[in-house]
């Protein structure tokens, strides 16, 4: 009798699991909805947010490192105070001081700021004001005429920046064997590099995805690809959920 009870209970559990699984598979899942909010200074909030077509975009002036700020950085590096490492340790208890000193020395004596300026200015930089904050992005169009141009947004993660994609951009914007090329848009996450940080709390992945969705719409892309790594991957996934008609699934 005891075994019969166990068997009946097991069968009922299996039937219940199948029922719940079938119900879950056939229950439509509503995609998340990103709300349109003002993220700039509250005193500058308009009565209503601008339409996509009214999002202001300006080309940035060539990137140039200011001499007084470089001098300040040099002073800070020169006068840095290092802590004493524990004996017979490497990275078990934090940064390795010997390696840190090498990095600081390279940054102070060998890093070529003017050379880096030229590299950063190889591509055009823009600022789009979206929902009250300034979003920076790199925009690189195909270098030659091709049969088809495919828009793609590349989203960096943490700790990172748009510079992660600098070596691959020329490969994407050049002509492929199939006679197509990519138009590349690399935004900076809010608060990173040249992008402004929000002026209030509550910014999340979904809202960042909404910023970038609006940017792609403002640039005139009704269908595009998006790729991201680390936090950029989370943003890319969110974009595919809130902009299902535009983010390509192919």
* CATH fold field value of the largest domain: Rossmann fold
Mean pLDDT: 88
SS-based class: alpha/beta
Query: What is the overall shape?
Result: globular
The count of strands amounts to 6
N-to-C order of helices and strands = HEHHHEEEHEHEH
By CATH, the architecture of the largest domain is named 3-Layer(aba) Sandwich
Distance between the termini: 57 Å
Query: What name goes with the CATH superfamily of the largest domain?
Result: Alpha/Beta hydrolase fold, catalytic domain
* Count of discrete alpha- or pi-helical segments spanning 4 or more residues: 7
Q: Number of domains in the coordinates? A: 2
- Supply Rg: 25 Å
Strand content: 15-25%
Strands across the major sheet, in which order? 1-2-3-5-4-6
CATH class of the largest domain: Alpha Beta
Give unreliable regions as ranges.
none
- Helix-residue proportion: 25-40%
Question: What profile does the largest beta sheet have?
Answer: 6 strands, mixed
GO molecular function: epoxide hydrolase activity
Organism: Paramuricea clavata
Domain Epoxide hydrolase N-terminal: 62-165
Pfam family, one: EHN
């Amino acid at each position: 009798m005891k075994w019969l009870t166990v068997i009946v209970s097991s069968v009922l559990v299996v039937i219940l699991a199948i029922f719940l699984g079938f119900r879950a598979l056939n229950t439509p899942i509503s995609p998340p909805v990103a709300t349109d909010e003002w993220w700039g200074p509250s005193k500058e909030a308009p009565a209503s947010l601008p339409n996509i077509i009214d999002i202001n975009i300006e080309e940035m002036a060539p990137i140039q490192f200011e001499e007084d700020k470089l001098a300040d950085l040099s002073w800070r590096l020169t006068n840095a105070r290092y802590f004493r490492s524990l004996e017979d340790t490497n990275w078990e208890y934090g940064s390795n001081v010997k390696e840190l000193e090498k990095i600081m020395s390279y940054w102070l004596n060998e890093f070529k700021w003017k050379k880096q300026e030229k590299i950063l200015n190889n591509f055009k930089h823009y600022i789009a004001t979206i929902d009250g904050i300034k979003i920076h992005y790199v925009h690189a169009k195909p270098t030659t005429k091709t049969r088809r141009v495919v828009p793609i947004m590349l989203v960096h993660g943490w700790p990172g920046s748009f510079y992660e994609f600098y070596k691959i951009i020329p490969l994407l914007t050049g002509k492929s064997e199939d006679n197509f090329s990519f138009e590349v848009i690399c935004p900076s996450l809010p608060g990173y590099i040249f992008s402004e940080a929000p002026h209030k709390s509550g910014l999340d992945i979904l809202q960042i995805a909404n910023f970038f969705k609006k940017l792609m719409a403002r640039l005139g892309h009704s269908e595009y690809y998006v790729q991201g790594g680390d936090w950029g991957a989370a943003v890319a996934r969110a974009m595919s959920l809130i902009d299902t008609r535009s983010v390509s699934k192919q």
